[in-house]
Amino acid sequence: MSTDDRFHKQRIARGLETPAREANELARKLGLDPFEVNYWIVDYDEMNELIAYGGFQRRYPHWRWGMNYDRQRKQRQFLGGKAFEIVNNDDPSNAFLQESNSLADQKAVITHVEAHSDFFKHNEWFRMFGESPNAAAMLERHAEAIAEYMENPDVSREAVEEWIDHVLCLEDNIDQHRPFTATREWDGSSATTADLDERLGELDLSEEVRREVFDEAWVDSMADERDGARFPADPERDLLAFLASHGMAYDEESEKAVEFEEWQREVLELLRKEAYYFAPQKMTKVMNEGWAVYHESRMMADENFAGDDEFVSYADHMAQVLGSPGLNPYKLGFELWQYVENRRNRREVIEHLLRVDGVTWRNFAETVDFDLVLEHLEPDPIVADPVGNLDSLDSSDPRIDAEALERARNGALSDLSRRAWKLLTYEGMAERHYSLTKRSNRGFLKRVTQAELERIARYLFDTERYGSVEEAVTAVDRTAGWERMFEIRESHNDVTFLDAFLTDEFVEENDYFTYEYSRMTEDFRVTSTAAADVKKKLMLQFTNFGKPTVAIHDANFRNRNELLLAHHYNGVHLDVREAKQTLERVFELWGRPVALKTIRKEFDQHDVDVARRRGREPEPIERGILIRFDGESFEEEELSDAEVEEIAATEVDYDTKPDEWL
Questions:
Q1: Whole-angstrom Cα distance, residue 639 to residue 623?
Q2: What is the secondary structure of 570-635 as a DSSP string?
Q3: What is the H or E stretch that residue 462 is in?
Q4: Are 23 and 305 in contact (CB under 8 A)?
Q5: Do both 68 and 109 map to the same domain?
Q6: What residues does the SpoVR-like C-terminal domain cover (predicted)?
Q7: Total count of domains within the chain
Q8: 3-class secondary structure for 532-588?
Q9: What pTM was estimated for this model as a whole?
Q10: pLDDT (tens digit per residue) in 337-391
Q11: Which of 220, 179, 21 is nearest to 111 (CA)?
Q12: Residue 111 domain-assigned?
């Protein structure tokens, strides 16, 4: 980097110091508690490199990074994509801002990053990897270790790259629902009969010694006290840990399995650790991005963090983020978080209204004047416009920041017209931004159903009564919606988030639907607007990162020391070509033949023709198959229904691939 470039970046950084500091202060006023964030200014090429490296400045040597870089560069060059930011899960977090972005974009990125950093710090799924990871240092150590192996004259660089290819093919085949443990601590070690048989064979014992000392009864007792038990006893989803513990490398010269070399075992373990580090980001994509967009919008638009001359540019920025085609996690997450807030606020209001004398769940709609309720819910003028009411603010009011008020009255706070939030506490901010009074949400309270009213009333403790609607509304906790959001932010991942909040009301209000390929019309058609169907499609998209769920079912399949994998079929069959390519990789990590059982969905052409003439969809035929690879060739065999019963789908009907869904 030239001296001029360095000074240019330093000038940009100095210009962003105040926005970064104030964005953090504003985020804390809104109840966020982010990691400290280090902001770095980078140029166009550096940003592309960071995106290619997954948000870090250094990764292990491998061709995948160059491929990622080239794809990112071409996407921005030819498709008009724009990189706004990249931030990593670390303590402190590191965020990278592109020097060519406008000030409006930089401020939007900073507010977005503060919310991401809060999510990283408090979501429990990120704690599964361990407390406060120093990820940048960890990944740099991994890069140095792998680079040393590649530079070792006794190890072929091509062999290391190929080994990395084998492992990366399985990087999502971990058990992301269990806390990360190193392979040496992983509870999955046990010997199989075939393992001992093979090791005894390698000792070249005489037949007499083998018969007298190591007879079959001894081998069986040593292998496993559980007579006839399958190993592993239960399906194992952490393929990388199992292969690290029990796998072997296939040696082409001797044409048999041999123990891993030290570098092979270490590389496998390092990449497995990285897979666990990145897993929570994949598991919470919708939640995390929606959380960041929600708070970015609150700060940039609602609190005027975007200046008057920046707002149009910011609006364009947000339109690009929310307007991306296909399944957009930013848009879906943003809408779901708004729904969570509105729903909890509505429940809080209804619980108070049901305590008003004369109001019951049966007469609620006839008795309650919703417009009057919303009028009473409007923010108090002192929080709606604290600057205009500066002289009447009370420092003892829990909604007012007493210290900031004193500074404002002493003239120590500048430009209060754009920084009114400095005068408010968290409670004041919650009232100032109360969701039910927003113009876009004013119909939300009225949409309460009779069933919901009855459900709330059934579990309502009649501990306090109110003489009027106004009295009841005055007692409403304006922080209820935000507090509920913070609870959910701590404990959920995308699958549980969608399962809990993708309701009929949400789907109808936001116009979600499903579509599938029709074999009758030979095109795509809308199939359902029902929330249950939309949820099924989305849940499958996010379960196991949207990848097929494959587990190890038997490490001594058919008593031949072969590895049996099983695809837990969910209605979407595997791409057999890709499955075979993956089996070739697994073979290199097991060192012996590998097999995969799955269910294949087939359509008989005659049935398709008949169904088309009758104006209906043909029924598929589902067949269990076993695909086996012995290191040289593949063979397939059909399985009986009983043999695939434990992996068959139940009450699931997906006819499209994940990338064809919403």
A1: 7
A2: -SS---HHHHHHHHHHHHHHHSS-EEEEEEEEE--HHHHHHHHHTTSPPPPEEEEEEEEE-SS-EE
A3: none
A4: yes
A5: yes
A6: 548-600
A7: 3
A8: HHHHHHHHHHHHHHHCCCEEEEEEEECCCCEEEEEECCCCCCCCHHHHHHHHHHHHH
A9: 0.88
A10: 999 999 999 999 999 999 999 999 999 999 999 999 999 999 999 999 999 999 9
A11: 21
A12: yes
Rounded Cα distance between 353 and 366, Å, is 13
Q: What is the DSSP letter of 40?
A: E
Higher pLDDT, 492 or 198: 492
Q: What is the pLDDT of residues 414-431, one digit of tens each?
A: 788 889 999 999 999 999
Is 83:98 a contact under the CB 8 Å cutoff?
yes
pLDDT digits (tens, 9 = 90+) for 541-550: 888 877 889 9
Q: Which residue range(s) make up the domain with 399?
A: 329-510
Q: pLDDT at residue 652 above 70?
A: no
SS (H, E, C) 231-286: CCCCCECCHHHHHHHHCCEEECCCCEEECCCHHHHHHHHHHHHHHHHHHHHHHCHH
DSSP state, residue 378: S
Please name the helix (run of DSSP H) or strand (run of DSSP E) that holds residue 9, with its range, or none: helix 3-29
Determine, yes or no, domain membership for 36.
Answer: yes
Whether residue 582 contacts residue 629, with contact meaning beta carbons closer than 8 Å, is answered with no
User: What span, in angstroms and rounded, lies between the C-alpha atoms of 621 and 625?
Assistant: 13
Please indicate, yes or no, whether residues 382 and 436 belong to a single structural domain of this protein.
Answer: yes
The whole-angstrom separation of Cα 541 and Cα 494 is: 10
**CB distance 650 to 640 below 8 Å:** no
Same domain membership, residue 620 and residue 575: yes
Q: Which residue bears the tokens 């940048």? A: 136
Distance CA 432, CA 378 (A): 8
Residue recorded with tokens 């409007």: 378
- pLDDT for 224 equals 47
Q: Are strands 523-528 and 514-518 parallel, antiparallel or unpaired?
A: antiparallel
Contact between residue 437 and residue 481 where contact means Cβ atoms under 8 Å apart: no
Q: Are the C-beta atoms of 625 and 546 separated by less than 8 Å?
A: no
